[in-house]
Amino acid sequence: ITSRQSTSFALNMAETALTQDELKKMVGYKAVDDYVKSGMVVGLGTGSTAYFAVERVGNLLKSGELKDIVCIPTSERTKEQALSLDIPLVTLDTHSKLDVAIDGADEVDPSLNLVKGGGGALLREKMVEVMADKFIVIVDESKLCDGLGPGFPIPVEITPFCHEHTMRQVAALDSCAGCKPVLRMGSSSSNQPDGDDIAVTDNGNYIVDLHFEEAIKDARKMALDIKAVVGVVDHGLFCDMSTAVIIAGKDGISVKK
Ligand code: 5RP
Fold this sequence. Notes:
By secondary structure, this protein is of the alpha/beta class. 31% of the residues lie in helices and 23% in strands. Helix 2 crosses helix 3. Ribulose-5-phosphate binds next to helix 5. One of its GO terms (biological process) is pentose-phosphate shunt, non-oxidative branch. It catalyses: aldehydo-D-ribose 5-phosphate = D-ribulose 5-phosphate. This is ribose-5-phosphate isomerase. GO terms for molecular function: ribose-5-phosphate isomerase activity.
């Protein structure tokens, strides 16, 4: 390989290697283009990937390619973004049935079970997404894993009242054996964990992140066990909910169903 060839190879790589943000934009836009049609009720997810889906909905409404849709945001952050784009918003109180919801995830296992809640929005996300006919997950390939747990802690939303007690009750569950529970501090997003104050969710609750060193053997059982602890509001295990996962990787876009 000559030095001219090697320079041109390096330039091509630089031109084609997409940034993480570009990958997120690709899947965010594709999910909207493939699954959102005029007249639908649409759930809008939370996070840096869902951001691009919301942006796409706003752009298509503005250009007139989408008409008569109403959306339900899954966090105050997403609500603000949607309002800034003039996206018509409703709530689950008036619209319990959604045609589609689109959201990111922190981890996706081979059965399409998810960990969500890295951004602290897990309760509203689950309330909205469980009511959607189709729940479309958008991720870059770094989110794929063989087993949930060691790659990303499981967030659990708990009431502030006697939260240390609730943390102990969760950690003592057989299905959570070996976990290290850590109360989330700073922002409610685990991506910005700095800060001396306890993180508070949009619902006024706390989040405890359960750190595991080994893959969780039975995520469905763990989900039921954690949910049964009094003081737990909900958790970031989203089992058997995904209709399709759209994945952006270095070789392009793929879809798992
Ligand atoms: C927020 C979430 C997000 O969907 C999840 O954290 C993924 O976020 P990002 O797309 O920024 O990686 O569950 O509660």
